[in-house]
Amino acid sequence: MTRRIGIFGAFALLSLTFFIGCKRGKSEQEKTVQPNIVIVYLDDLGYGDVGAYGATGLKTPNIDKLAKGGIMFTDGYATSATCTPSRYGLLTGVYPWREKDAKILPGTAPLLIKTEQLTIPKMLKEKGYHTGIVGKWHLGLGSGNTNWNEKVAPGPNEVGFDFSYILAATQDRVPTVYIKNGDVVGLDPNDPIEVNYNKNFEGEPTGKDNPELTTMKWHHGHNNSIVNGIPRIGYMKGGEKAKWSDIDMADHFLAIAKDYVKMHKNEPFFLVYTMQQPHVPRTPNPRFEGMSGMGPRGDAIVEADWCLGEFVKTLEEEGLLENTLIVFSSDNGPVLNDGYYDDAEEKLGDHKPGGELRGGKYSLFEAGTRVPFITYWKGKIQPTVSNALVCQVDLLGSLAALVGSAEKTQDSQDLIDAFMGKSKTGREELVLEATTRTAMRKGDWYLIPPYKGQALNKDVNIELGNSTDFQLYNIKEDVGQQKNLAKENTEKLQEMIATFESIRGKDYSNIQKLKLK
Ligand code: NG6
Ligand code: CA
To answer: Could you give the C-alpha distances from 449 to 97, 112, 255, 468, in angstroms and in order?
Structure first.
C-alpha cells in the first residue's frame, strides 16, 4: 500500500514538476526579450547638425545610417537645455526640475542621483544585464570634499553601473583626468591631485594671468587652470601623469567602449556611451582637422560621427547588431561660442546647428531641447520617420516594458511601441527645462511662461526665451517660434496653462504676479 502510494505520489510529483516546468519555460520564452541596449549620447549636438535632419554642409554618414535604417524622431527631446539636468532625466526617468540641485555642476559637486534612487542601469541589472558607462558623467561624484587620491565614491558604480570609465564633469572643467570605477587612471601617489573651484593654488599659472601659456584663447569664463595649453573652469594642482590628452579623448573613449562590448558580448549588456563632442573645448584629433571646413566644432562632429561608425562596426563584427537596440541622441541643443575663440561662428557659413528651430543651448525655445533622436535595431525596427512626441525621460519606462520589468516612475512613460516603430503615438505633453525655468509642449502647441532675465545671452549669442509675457506658439505652422499667439488665442493659452500647472504646480515663474491671470 505504502509502496503504491509512493509510486503514485512520485508520478503525481513528476507530472506536476513537468507541468510547472512547461509553464515556466513558456512564460520565460514569452518575456525573454533581452537585447543589448546601447545609448549613444552626444554633448551639445544640435537638431540641425545631422545630415538626416537636414544638414547639408556637414557630413554625418554614420549617424545618417542609423537614422535611415531605424526610426528618426522629428519630435524627440532632451529633458533640459543643459547637460546635468538632461543626464539626470535620462538615467532616472524623473523630470530634472523636480530636483533643485539638477543644474550645471562644477567638477567638485557631490553625486546628484541618490544611491537609493531608481535608475535605468539598476532596473536592467535586476533583469540580468551587465551595465556600463563610458564617457562624460557630469552628475557629481562623492559626498562633498572629494579626495581625488582615494576611491571616488559614490558615483556611477553606486547608482547602477557595474563598470564606469568617465570624465567627472565636462571637458572644460577640472579635474582633467579619467576615472575608472572610482579610481583616477594613472595617478602617481607621489603627485596627488588637488581641486578647488574657488581659489587657485599658490604659484600655479592661470588662463587669466598667463595668456602666453595658452594655445586656445578664452572668450568668457574658462580662465582658471591651464591644462594642455587650454584654460579651464576650476583650479587643479598635481596629477601630472594622470591628465588626459584632449586630442586623443575621442579615440580613448571609443577604445574603452569597444572593449566593453567585446568583454560582455556573451551576456545581455547595457552601455551608455557618452561622447564629449562637440562640447568645448573642441579638440578633434589632428586627423580630423579641416574635414568639415567649419573649424573645430564641425571637425569634432565629423570625429564623433566616425566614432559612432567604428563602434557600430564592432557590434557588427561581434555578431551583435541584430540583438542590440541602439538609441542615439544629444543632451541639449547647440551653441557656437561657449567660451573659447575657436572659429565656430566665423567658419559657420550657411550651416544651421539648430536647423529651423529658435534658440539653442540654455534656451527655453525649441533648439534648446529638441535634438536628434534615433532608435535603431537591425532586423527588428522597420525604418521610418516618426513625429511621435518622445523624450529621453521616457527611456526608463519604455526599456522597462521592453525587458519585462515593472519598474516605473511618475514622469517616465512607456513609449516602447513608439521607440520600436509599432506606433506613431508618443506622449501628450512634455515639460521642458532650461536653467531652472520650464516650458511645455502639448500637441502642436508650445507654452513659455513669463520669466525675468535677459532675453539674449550676449556671451553665447542665444535667445533664452525670457519675456514678461506668456508666449504661445503653434510649432506646426510656425516651427521657428516667431509668432506669439498668446493674446490672439486666449482659449488655447488658458488650456495650456491649466495643463502646465497641473504638472508643474503654480510656483514656476520668477515673476511674482503673472499677467493674464
Ligand atoms: C557653462 C560654461 C560652458 C559649458 C556649460 C556646461 C562658462 C562661462 N560657461 O557654465 O562653457 O561648460 O557651463 O555645458 O563657464 S553642459 O553641456 O555641460 O551643460
Ligand atoms: Ca551638453
So the answer is: 15, 27, 45, 8
